[in-house]
Design brief:
transmembrane; transmembrane helix; Integral membrane protein; 77 residues
Length: 77
C-alpha cells in the first residue's frame, strides 16, 4: 500500500534546487567558476517547469477521479 501519492512537481523542484546548490558548492570549493547569474534561470526554470507539471498532474488526477465516480454511479449494485 502506498503511503502517499507520487508528486512529480515536487521532484522537479527538488532537483532544480539541488542543481543550484551543487553549482554554488562547486564554486565555493574552487572546483569551477560559476557566475552569479547562472543560478537564476536554473531556479526559475525549474520552478516554472515544476508548476506546469503539477498543474498537468492535478488535471489528470481530477479527470481520473471523475471517471471513477461516473463508473461507480453507472454500476448496477
Amino acid at each position: 500500500m502506498l503511503r502517499h501519492e507520487f508528486q512529480p512537481g515536487r521532484l522537479i523542484t527538488g532537483l532544480s534546487l539541488t542543481l543550484a546548490a551543487v553549482l554554488y558548492a562547486g564554486d565555493a570549493g574552487d572546483a569551477w567558476k560559476t557566475p552569479w547569474f547562472v543560478v537564476i534561470p536554473v531556479v526559475t526554470g525549474g520552478l516554472c517547469l515544476a508548476g506546469s507539471v503539477s498543474a498537468v498532474t492535478g488535471l489528470i488526477r481530477r479527470h481520473k477521479r471523475s471517471e471513477a465516480r461516473e463508473a461507480r454511479a453507472k454500476s448496477p449494485i
